[in-house]
Design brief:
486 residues, alpha/beta, 5-stranded parallel beta sheet, 5-stranded mixed beta barrel, 31% helix, 19% strand
C-alpha cells in the first residue's frame, strides 16, 4: 500500500528521474522531506532508497546546534561521493543549514548543484528537472491537506505539522530566523489530513510544530489547540487509535487544554513540555521566564487533572551565566518533579543566536559534567518509575523487529513517543508473531532504566493492520535527532 495523501495522475515527462532523500534532524524536517517526495512522485519521478541508483540526491539538513551542523556537512560530503561512484548527476542540499549558510555551502562544497531553503520546498521538482523556478520562492510556506505527500515513517504512525514558525524570543534559539513568524494551518485542513491518514491504516498521529500550543492564535481562535484536539478525537477513524501532540510551551498550557486531554480516549495521556531550566535567573537570560516553583505548580495541576499522565521535558545545561548554584537548583527541581522522560542538552553557542553575545560562558568540561550528573539523577528516577509498572497489563502499539536484532520485537506504550522515548521489548509474542501496527496488551515483566520488557497476554486481532515498513524509505535509514526539539 502506497502511503499517499493525494494521488494525482503523473505528467508524461520525457525526463523520468530516480531521486533519493536523506532526512536529518527532527520530525518537522521529516515532514518537509515527505512533501518534497510527494511533489516529485506526483510529477512521475521515482524514489529510491539506494544512493548508488539515484540520478538526484537530496539532503534535507538540520543546523540547530553544532553536532547537527556537523552531521549535515558529513552527510552532504558522503552523498557527494555518489556523483563519482554512482549514477548521481545532481546533489541538492535543502533545509535549515541552507537558511543559515547558503553562500558558504555554494562556495565551500562545489559538489552541491543547488540549495533549497525551508520556504522553497515547492521548488524541488523544478530544481531536479532544470526547469524555471517559481517567481516568489521565498514566500512563507506551509503545506496543506491537498499537498502531495509520501510518508517515510512506518505505515502505522505519521506526523502532521499543524503550524510553522515561532514568535517566541528564546535567546538560545535560531529557528524563527529561518522558519519565520508563527502561522497555523486551517482547522479544516488538519482534520481532513488526519481522517485521510486514519483511512490509510495509520494507528497513531503525532501533531507537531515549533509551538503547537499557539495553534490557531493567528486565526483568531481562543484555545485553538484544545478545540483541534477535541475535534480530532471524534474524527472519522480516530476511535481506537492514538493522537498525541508535541512541543507544548509551558505558559500556554491552559486548563481547557488539560481538561480536553483528560476527557477523550484517543488523546494519549502524554505531555511534551520543554522547560529548559528551573533557575529563574537562567530562564530570564533565556528569555523564557517563570521558575522552578511555578513549574512545579503547573506539573501538580497537570497530574491532578490527568491521572496517569506521562510528562516529558528537556533541559539545557551550561547556558551562559549558569552558576553552580543555578545548576544545583536545577538538580533539586528534577528530583522534585520526577519526570517520566527527560532530555538533557549541552548548550551550543550559535553565532546567530542572542545568547551568543551573553557574558559568562561555561567551560565545556563543566557542561559535560553537568549533563552527566543530571542524566544520572534522571536515570534513577526513570528506573523507579518503570519498576512501578511491573506486573501491570497495558495496551501497546507493535513496532516490529528491533533494529538491533530481528529476533526481538519492539512495541510502545502510549507514554512512549516514537523515536524519542524508550520502547518495550516483547519477550513472549505468543502463538503468532505480532504484526507492526497492531494494538495488543502486554504484561510488564522487567524494567530497565529507560526500556521495559513484557509478554503479550491477549489474542491477536482478527483483522490485521497494514503491516510493514514504509515503501518510501529515505536514503540510508537514520534515526531522527532530538536536536531540534528544544
Amino acid at each position: 500500500m502506497f502511503a499517499i495523501l493525494e494521488v494525482r495522475t503523473p505528467c508524461r515527462w520525457t525526463l523520468n528521474l530516480k531521486v533519493g532523500f536523506v532526512s536529518l534532524g527532527c520530525p518537522k524536517n521529516l515532514v518537509d522531506t515527505e512533501v518534497m517526495m510527494g511533489q516529485l512522485s506526483a510529477r512521475g519521478h521515482q524514489l529510491t532508497p539506494r544512493p548508488e541508483e539515484a540520478d538526484v540526491i537530496v539532503v534535507n539538513t538540520c543546523s540547530f546546534i553544532d553536532p547537527a551542523k556537523q552531521e549535515s556537512v558529513d552527510t552532504i560530503l558522503e552523498m557527494a561521493e555518489y556523483k563519482k561512484s554512482g549514477r548521481a548527476r545532481k546533489l541538492i542540499v535543502a533545509g535549515c543549514l541552507v537558511e543559515r549558510y547558503r553562500s558558504e555551502i555554494r562556495r565551500g562544497i562545489p559538489e552541491v548543484d543547488a540549495v533549497l531553503g525551508t520556504n522553497e520546498i515547492e521548488s524541488i521538482a523544478a530544481l531536479c528537472e532544470d526547469a524555471p523556478l517559481p517567481e516568489n520562492p521565498l514566500a512563507a510556506y506551509l503545506y496543506h491537506h491537498a499537498t502531495p505527500r509520501l510518508l517515510a515513517t512506518p505505515r502505522h504512525y505519521a506526523y502532521i505539522k499543524i503550524a510553522e514558525g515561532c514568535d517566541h524570543p528564546c535567546s538560545f534559539c535560531v529557528i524563527p530566523q529561518f522558519r519565520g513568524r508563527f502561522r497555523s494551518r486551517r482547522f479544516e485542513s488538519v482534520i481532513a489530513e488526519a481522517e485521510a491518514l486514519f483511512a490509510q491504516g495509520v494507528r497513531e498521529i503525532n501533531l507537531i510544530g515549533q509551538d503547537t500550543t499557539s495553534y490557531g492564535a493567528d486565526l483568531g481562535l481562543k484555545d485553538g489547540l484544545a478545540l483541534l484536539l477535541e475535534r480530532l478525537a471524534s474524527a472519522r477513524g480516530a476511535e481506537g487509535n492514538w493522537i498525541r501532540f508535541l512541543y507544548a510551551y509551558p505558559n500556554q498550557v491552559s486548563q481547557r487544554l488539560l481538561d480536553t486531554l483528560a476527557a477523550h480516549a484517543p488523546l494519549v495521556k502524554y505531555l511534551d513540555l520543554p522547560l529548559q531550566h528551573a533557575s529563574a535567573r537562567v530562564l530570564r537570560r533565556m528569555k523564557r521566564g517563570a521558575s522552578g516553583e511555578i513549574f512545579l505548580r503547573l506539573i501538580e495541576r497537570i497530574r491532578r487533572t490527568i491521572p496517569g499522565v506521562a510528562i516529558r521535558t528537556s533541559m539545557i545545561v551550561g547556558f551562559p551565566g549558569e552558576t553552580q548554584a543555578d545548576f544545583d537548583e536545577l538538580c533539586q527541581f528534577i528530583q522534585a518533579a520526577r519526570f517520566d522522560r527527560l532530555g538533557v542538552f549541552s548548550y551550543s553557542d550559535e553565532d546567530s543566536s542572542a545568547s551568543f553575545h551573553l557574558a559568562g560562558k561555561v567551560d565545556r568540561r563543566a557542561i559535560y559534567n553537568r549533563r552527566r550528573r543530571l542524566m544520572s539523577i534522571q536515570r534513577r528516577i526513570s528506573r523507579a518509575r518503570n519498576r512501578r509498572l511491573l506486573g501491570e497489563e497495558l495496551p501497546v502499539l507493535v513496532e516490529g523487529p528491533s533494529r538491533d536484532s530481528e529476533l526481538v520485537w519492539e512495541c510502545r506504550l502510549a507514554s512512549q513517543a516514537p523515536e524519542i522515548d524508550g520502547v518495550c521489548y516483547i519477550s513472549d509474542p505468543g502463538p503468532r508473531a505480532p504484526l507492526p501496527g497492531e494494538f495488543r496488551r502486554m504484561r510488564i515483566t522487567a524494567a530497565h532504566d529507560y526500556d521495559l520488557v513484557g509478554e503479550l497476554v491477549d489474542e491477536p486481532p482478527a483483522c490485521s493492520p497494514a503491516a510493514g515498513p514504509s515503501p518510501f524509505r529515505v536514503l540510508p535509514e537514520r534515526t531522527p535527532s532530538p536536536a531540534c526539539r528544544l
